[in-house]
Every structure is written in structure tokens, then in C-alpha cells.
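Renewal narrative, Specific Aim 1. Our central claim is that a sequence can be written position by position from structural information alone. The example that follows is taken directly from our test logs and has not been curated for this report. It begins with the C-alpha cells describing the chain, in the order in which they were read.
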């Protein structure tokens, strides 16, 4: 959109026209032209960059999506323009449409090249050293749609050391404790359709993981000439845990996170400085500290915070005890910045680095307990909150579940709200949560943090 608007403006200037000096009826076609071209490309599916889309089909969608709106704007303008003005409009419309289409075609070609090189491929783990798994691996060797990094199977006595060149790394229990599990995007279960009991047993064991789990029973129903591996593995009916990734939603969320986080960092820079000075004058120790917490797919991330408690180097690696009312470890300034959540502001840096989002389940510290039990052992679906990036604020926080959780009931309520957010997540829902964050948190003075 920005590109189309800027190009329209530049072409008008080259033609010796100033849109601000035009009458409204003459300027209108130039105003709506970029909107129509971008909307046409969206409706024609030109922004869908799936590896399974053919080049000819994508070019056709570009011609249709950009050409029809440009023609419409040109015809609309002929009613109000002089012959000379109509020629300028036709020139601008043709140039904007063709340039937008060419730019999108370049992006498409680049994405296909990167996909072929494996740079855009998702990391996949296969459960089940079956013939279906072998066929999936062999087909993937040609297309590189997926990055298959290993196979796990409980029947190791029957399984080979590798399957079509992909190593068999161990049993299901080995997968559950595998150090590289956080880097896995999807788990594909490939078993025969007759093994119903085995399928049920595998799914029950894997459900506790935050990963998307796909059940691929057989490949015979797919035409290798018309269906890509990414389309097979993304079949919504095959998902038994999690949901198919919405690429458009992920791009919008990442883009909005980056833009809003950058703006907030600039807006709150005086507050950052004031809090930093107050913390440094209040008690000895660093102004900021980074604590290990659980992130997306259970990855361990280091979250930035303003120090609100007396300095304790051990707290950076593991939480020994949650805060309580009148906790002597909390400093004078710490009580204020915790109550107002100003201690969380440095996490905008985590958002910019892609480790966190503005909105999402709050990242819990390693070793967090309630009633002497680790929180992940209290709720069976606990790990499912890690299917999305953790956030600075979230649905649980604006509904009163913020700060420490000391009872099993509080943990269950927190997880219920977190999973509700995971299932409802959208741009508008995120915006709603952000708008309610300040009034809800500042109006909750009774909540201990």
C-alpha cells in the first residue's frame, strides 16, 4: 500500500500535477487507485506465498488482481477528465498496477528460491518409522518443502538406524526430553490406518507438548503432481493438537508487534530513564536483570525487567519463591513499579527481538510452584499456553489473574484464561486487550505483585 501510494504521488509530480491542487472529482481516481490495486491483489490471492502455488497461477492472479482495478480506475476517471488528463491517468494507473505486480512477483520468486534452499521450511519431527514416513521423506528430498530433522519410534528393535537418510533418534520418551524439541515446529505422526490403538496411545502421550501435531494416515489420496508436501501436512482435518499455522495472521502479528513496540519505546523513553535512576538510587545492584522463562514451544528465553527486589544473582536462572504480601525482598521503588507494571517495560526489547509479543500468555519463570507443586504438573494442558509467543500483557492479566499464583485454583484459572486467548487470538482481540491493559491493571491496586 505504501509503495503504491508513493509511486502514484511520484508519477503525478513527474507529470507536472499536484494532487492537492486538483478538484476533488479529478483527484478521486488517483486517491482510490492504490487502494483498488492492493485490494485487487489481495482478493486475487496474490499475497499467498504457499510453496504449492504454481508460477503460472500466481502470474495470472497478479494480472487479474492489479489489471482489473487499474482499468476500473481509468474508466472511472474518463468521466471527469479532459483527454489529456485521461492519458495521464491511464499512464499512472498502468505504471502503478504493473509495478505492484512486478514487486509481488519478485517477492514470490524470492520466497520460492528460499523455500527450495530450505530456509523457509518448517522443522518437522516424524513419529513412526513406517513406510508412509519413508515415502514422505523421499518426496520431501525433491521439493524441500519441509525440514525433517529426525524420526522417533517406540519399536526400535524393528526400526533401522535411519529412514531414507533421516536418523532414527530414539523412542517417544526420548522425544519428550529432547534438547532440540523447542526448535521443532510440527510433529507428524505417520502410522497405518489399521493401528487405531497405537494411534490413540501416541496422541495421548504427545498432547502434553505445545507443538502442532499432525496425524498422517496415508498418502495414497494425494496426487504428487498437484499437491505439495506442505499442503499434505497442513491438511486441517489431520490436526489432532494445535491448529494449522495462519501465515497471514503471523505476519500481521509480527508486524504490529514490531511497529507498536518501537513506538512505545520512543514514547516511554523518559519513563525508562526516570525508573532507571530511581532503581539505582533506591538499593545497590543492577538496574536491569534478565530472568530465564518459558517462551514459544517451551523455549528458554531471557526476559528483561527493571529490578524490583534486592539483588539476587540466583533469581536470574530459577524462581525459588513467588512474592507475597509485604515481601521483604521487594524494594521501596520496587513496590511502586510492580504495582504499576512499570517493571515490565524493558520487555519491549524482547518483543523487538522476536522472543515475545505485546499480547500473549505471560512467560512463567523456571521452577514456578504453587502449593509446593510445579505449575506444569497441576494442569495437564499447561504446555498448550506455549503454542503462541508469551506477551507483556494478556487476557489473563486484564481479567484479574496477574502476579503470583499461590494455589492450584489460581493456576487453573490462569491457564484457562491463557488457553482461551490462544483459541481466540486475532489482531482485533490483541488490540482490545492492549486498550484495556492500562485501566484494568492500574485499577487493580489490591492485587499483590
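The sequence written for that structure reads:
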Amino acid at each position: 500500500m505504501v509503495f503504491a501510494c508513493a509511486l502514484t504521488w511520484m508519477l503525478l509530480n513527474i507529470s507536472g500535477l499536484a494532487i492537492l491542487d486538483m478538484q476533488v472529482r479529478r483527484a478521486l481516481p488517483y486517491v482510490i487507485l492504490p487502494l483498488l490495486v492492493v485490494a485487487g491483489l489481495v482478493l486475487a490471492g496474490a499475497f499467498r506465498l504457499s510453496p504449492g502455488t504454481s508460477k503460472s497461477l500466481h502470474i495470472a492472479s497478479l494480472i487479474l488482481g492489479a489489471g482489473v482495478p487499474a482499468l476500473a480506475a481509468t474508466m472511472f476517471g474518463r468521466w471527469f477528465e479532459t483527454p489529456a488528463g485521461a492519458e495521464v491517468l491511464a499512464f499512472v494507473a498502468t505504471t502503478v498496477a504493473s509495478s505492484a505486480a512486478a514487486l509481488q512477483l519478485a517477492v514470490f520468486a524470492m520466497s520460492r528460491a528460499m523455500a527450495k534452499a530450505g530456509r523457509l521450511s518448517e522443522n518437522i519431527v516424524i513419529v513412526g518409522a513406517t513406510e508412509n514416513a519413508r515415502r514422505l521423506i523421499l518426496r520431501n528430498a525433491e521439493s524441500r518443502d519441509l525440514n525433517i530433522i529426525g524420526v522417533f519410534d517406540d519399536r526400535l528393535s524393528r526400526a533401522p538406524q535411519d529412514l531414507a537418510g533421516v536418523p532414527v533418534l530414539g523412542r517417544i520418551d526420548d522425544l519428550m526430553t529432547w534438547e532440540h524439541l523447542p526448535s521443532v515446529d510440527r510433529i507428524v505422526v505417520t502410522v497405518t490406518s489399521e493401528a487405531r490403538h497405537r494411534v490413540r496411545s501416541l496422541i495421548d502421550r504427545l498432547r502434553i507438548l505445545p507443538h502442532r501435531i499432525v496425524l498422517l494416515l496415508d498418502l495414497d489420496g494425494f496426487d504428487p503432481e498437484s499437491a505439495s508436501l506442505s499442503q499434505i501436512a497442513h491438511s486441517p482435518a489431520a490436526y489432532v493438537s494445535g491448529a494449522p499455522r495462519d501465515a497471514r495472521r503471523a505476519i500481521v502479528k509480527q508486524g504490529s508487534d514490531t511497529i507498536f513496540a518501537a513506538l512505545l519505546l520512543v514514547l516511554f523513553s523518559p519513563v525508562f530513564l526516570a525508573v532507571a535512576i530511581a532503581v539505582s538510587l533506591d538499593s545497590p545492584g543492577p538496574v536491569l536483570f534478565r530472568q530465564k522463562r518459558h517462551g514459544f514451544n517451551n523455549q528458554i528465553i531471557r526476559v528483561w525487567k527493571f529490578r524490583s527486589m534486592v539483588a539476587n544473582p540466583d533469581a536470574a536462572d530459577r524462581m525459588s519463591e513467588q512474592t507475597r504480601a509485604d515481601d521483604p525482598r521487594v524494594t521501596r521503588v520496587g513496590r511502586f513499579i510492580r504495582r504499576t507494571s512499570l517493571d515490565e517495560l524493558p520487555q519491549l526489547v524482547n518483543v523487538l527481538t522476536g522472543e515475545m509479543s505485546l499480547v500473549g500468555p505471560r512467560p512463567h519463570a523456571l521452577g514456578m510452584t504453587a502449593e509446593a507443586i510445579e505449575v506444569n504438573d497441576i494442569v495437564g494442558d499447561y504446555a498448550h499456553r506455549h503454542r503462541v509467543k508469551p506477551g507483556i500483557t494478556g487476557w489473563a492479566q486484564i481479567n484479574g489473574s496477574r502476579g503470583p499464583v499461590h494455589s492450584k485454583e489460581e493456576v487453573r484459572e490462569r491457564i484457562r484464561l491463557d488457553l482461551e486467548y490462544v483459541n481466540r487470538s486475532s489482531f482485533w482481540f490483541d488490540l482490545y486487550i492492549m486498550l484495556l491493559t492500562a485501566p484494568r491493571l492500574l485499577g487493580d491496586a489490591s492485587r499483590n505483585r
